[in-house]
């Protein structure tokens, strides 16, 4: 900074404000004769992004020769922060048999750098999937939002009940040459749906093994006949013969009585 009157008289320059004579003190300094300002300490935009100082010009007797002027200093961002995931492990689920494009879960990372510049713009990608069955890329991730969706058919809980995915977040809009990266784990559980028909362990019911068995008509249930004296099982009947003391009924509970 220079005063118009420095050609005629000797001028002394000074600065005041936060970062000069107020905490944090002496971040900035000024040569009292030349009026050149210097940064004396490291600046961190994430801690403080701007400073407002006032510059003063006085003669050798301390008399003000110029009105104070405002100095606004803005700290330019550097890419010095890696993206940080909110969680190191994310848990999601998806029904087996889901169609491609089905939403599964969301992951997110925060970058402390200026998000109006590439320094703070985070992009996502999937690094790996385990297991690789039926193919190694069953899922994809929206690079900007962090939403994970299915990308291929073939999810079958009876074959693979859980997938582990490594997700990477990179700043500089995903530029792997210049950006900083971090990773997190996404665990996807494949949830069961009713895709297997009921199976009977036997076509006949020995009368000496399931006495007291209650047969209750229902539309459909998985049926397993336990070896107990009295259990409830669900069947679909179209008439029921009288056998062992059981009367024929169109609807209602059927019970095989104990001898």
Automatic annotation (TrEMBL):
CDD domains: Cadherin_repeat
Cadherin domain: residues covered: 3-85, 86-200
Any Gene Ontology CC annotation: adherens junction
Keywords: Calcium, Cell adhesion, Cell membrane, Glycoprotein, Membrane, Metal-binding, Repeat, Transmembrane
Membrane topology: Single-pass type I membrane protein
GO terms of molecular function: beta-catenin binding; cadherin binding; calcium ion binding
Protein's cellular compartments: Cell membrane
UniProt-listed GO biological process terms: adherens junction organization; calcium-dependent cell-cell adhesion via plasma membrane cell adhesion molecules; cell migration involved in gastrulation; cell morphogenesis; cell-cell adhesion mediated by cadherin; cell-cell junction assembly; ectoderm development; establishment of cell polarity
InterPro entries assigned to the protein according to its UniProt record, in alphabetical order: Cadherin, Cadherin-like_dom, Cadherin-like_sf, Cadherin_CS
Major subcellular site: membrane
Pfam families referenced in this protein's UniProt entry, alphabetically: Cadherin
SMART domains the UniProt entry points to: CA
Protein name: Cadherin-4
Organism placement in taxonomy: Eukaryota, Metazoa, Chordata, Craniata, Vertebrata
